[in-house]
Amino acid sequence: MNKLAKQAIDAHGGLERWNRFTTLSAHLTQEGALWAAKGKAGVLVNPTVTVDLREEKASHWPFGSPDRRSRFEPQRVAIEDANGKVLEELLQPRASFQGHAATWTDLQLAYFAGYAMWTYLNIPFLLARPGVESEEVEPWQESGETWRRLNVHFPSDIATHSTEQTLYLDRQGLLRRQDYNVEIDGTAGAAHYVYDHKEFSGIVFPTKRRVYRRQPDGRSAPKPLIISIDLDRIVLG
Fold it and tell me: Which of 104, 146, 174, 205 has fewest C-beta within 10 Å?
């Protein structure tokens, strides 16, 4: 692990403390243009997400209604009722996005939301995961600040937006922005900003996230706001 990756992990609480936990849950308030564009406005407005910190697993509840919950793993997504009975299931879900349909099914939404939140809530600690590679590249000027940047390469067994992503870090090593291409949606480029870092059980998380389209010069387009996510009630266990 390179020095900048270690600095980022240390700034967010350190790997030793992070490894004490195995699960994380958080309440989300979500808005933005994406949900309506994919025909899923209102399905995931105020859910609680739970993610595993060892394996790639995530769950959103409620999922559209209080008696429905999603279950995400890279090779399978499902929607269950309150008793855990499987109502719908999809194997190899990433393949279902071939052709980049204008609207998503509930299972496709569960896949997207599952891998996205698992990635977001595990970064920057994913930089220490076997198979995840990173290297520092040239710095970036934005908002009167200089942010150092890490190019990150994810192995094929991790479901995420794209194999190659870029993290932007401030002087303290705190995450300020994350760039990726949404491969399941035609490789749309995204500039994902994070704000309002707060500490929970000794781990530092950004509690506000705003996603915009990334322009060819690397700058973000001011409109539309693609996704907004506000997090509270973060619990590590």
Answer: 146
The model's pTM is 0.97
Q: Is the pLDDT of residue 186 over 90?
A: no
Could you tell me which residues come within 8 angstroms of residue 18 by beta carbon, excluding any fewer than 6 positions away? 9, 12, 53, 125, 203
Residue with tokens 């870029």: 166
Domain count, the chain: 1
What tokens were used for 185? 């949606």
User: Rounded distance, CA 226 to CA 113, Å?
Assistant: 14
CA-based nearest residue to 2, from 128, 121, 120: 128
CA angle 214, 209, 34 (to 5 degrees): 60
User: Which residue range is the domain that position 130 belongs to?
Assistant: 3-236
Peptide linkage before 124 cis (omega within 30 of 0): yes
Collapse the DSSP code of 179 into the 3-class scheme (helix H, G, I; strand E, B; otherwise coil) and give the result: strand
pLDDT in tens, 117-136: 999 999 999 999 999 999 99
Strand partners, 194: 209
Other residues' Cβ atoms within 10 Å of the Cβ of residue 16: 10
Please state, as a whole number, how many other Cβ atoms lie within 10 Å of the Cβ of residue 150.
Answer: 22
Write the CA distances from 139 to 102, 133, 136, 147, 212, integer angstroms.
36, 18, 9, 6, 20
Distance CA 198, CA 159 (A): 27
Measure the CA–CA gap between 140 and 121, rounded to whole angstroms. Answer: 24
What CATH number did the domain enclosing 232 receive? 2.50.20.10
State the Cα–Cα distance between residues 15 and 6, nearest whole angstrom: 9
Which residues is 48 bridged to in the sheet? 27, 61
